[in-house]
Amino acid sequence: MDDVKQIEVAMIGAGPSALAAAVYTSREHIDTVLFEKGVIGGLAAITDKIDNYPGFDKGIEGMELATKLQNQAERFGATIELAEVSNISSHDNGNVLLETTSGNYEAKAVLIATGSDYKKLGIPGEEEFYGRGVHYCATCDGAFYKDKKVIVVGGGNSAAQEALFLTRFTKDITMLIRSDWSASEVLIDEVEANENIKILKGVTTDEIVANEDRKVEKVIGTNSESGETIEIEADGVFIFIGLKPNTKFLQDTKVELDEIGFIKAGADQKTTIEGVFVSGDVRSGATMQIASAVGEGATAALKIREYLEEKARKAK
């Protein structure tokens, strides 16, 4: 690769895990560059309120937490590049090569902390009307549905939290839960006590239908028990059915992934490429919690420092 830029540590992703790691590496004067193709702060940044992050007794808005993490990392000298990494590979000298939309880089160590993205239903109308009635972020798009009819698909913590958030804008919310709740008891109690949310359990979501003006008007589902077709009027559909790892760029690399696509690693957080570490939600077996992602980022940073010190000793 021509015009390769030399850096000490590259971090792929700029969510809570990578930002926490960058605080640790950069404050020890390790040259650190983070590559982020989307939103700095990841999914945390577009979460309305984070209520279970230690230290914030009244909760904190996701964007505020992401901004604080970013400011802290940058204060110590970390650099954030708004760019997408398309490939990583090993160099003959033991370093790691990265191909990105902002150029090619050679790093002594790499941390992959790309996190996860929203799963899709894969039903008719979902892709066609994305952003025009179909959404995956109530915090981002809920305000468009003031006093309108909204459907929330999912029965986990995210679906429950987003349904509660949407009550700020409308009193007509229907939750479609394919089987039964998988959310925490605290959230279930809160949702079920809210008179603005109607809950339909045992109902699949089969199709999102729009009118001739291409505006979403209803959702077609099926009652799993009776087989009855159900049609529910809606101006907007918010889908929260889980997360998938952001590892597509690793499909043709030597980084080993599990059957779902999460990155395999040992207790040392090392991947199957020398000098490449992993932390946060993209790691196979991760808890999918911001607090643990931040902790893993800090641990990865310390392991990267040890790795760099050992590498320097061997080079003498």
Descriptive overview:
- The chain has 316 residues and is of the alpha/beta class.
- The chain folds into two domains: 4-117 and 243-315, FAD/NAD(P)-binding domain (3-Layer(bba) Sandwich), CATH 3.50.50.60; 120-239, FAD/NAD(P)-binding domain (3-Layer(bba) Sandwich).
- It has helices spanning 16-27, 42-45, 62-75, 138-141, 157-166, 185-192, 290-315, and strands at residues 4-12, 32-35, 49-50, 60-61, 79-81, 85-90, 96-100, 103-112, 116-118, 134-135, 149-153, 172-177, 197-201, 203-210, 216-223, 229-233, 236-239, 243-245, 276-278.
- Helix 1 packs parallel to helix 3 and helix 1 (16-27) runs parallel beside helix 7 (290-315).
- The two termini are 27 Å apart.
Please describe the structure with a list of short key phrases separated by commas or semicolons.
316 residues; alpha/beta; FAD/NAD(P)-binding domain; 7-stranded mixed sheet; 5-stranded parallel sheet; 29% strand
Distance between the termini: 27 Å
Sketch the topology as an H/E string, one letter per element: EHEHEEHEEEEEEHEHEHEEEEEEEH
Shape: elongated
CATH class category label of the largest domain: Alpha Beta
Helix content: 10-25%
The number of helical segments is: 7
Which band does the percent of strand residues land in? 25-35%
Quick one: CATH superfamily of the largest domain?
Answer: FAD/NAD(P)-binding domain
In total, the number of strands is 19
State the secondary-structure class: alpha/beta
What's the domain count? 2
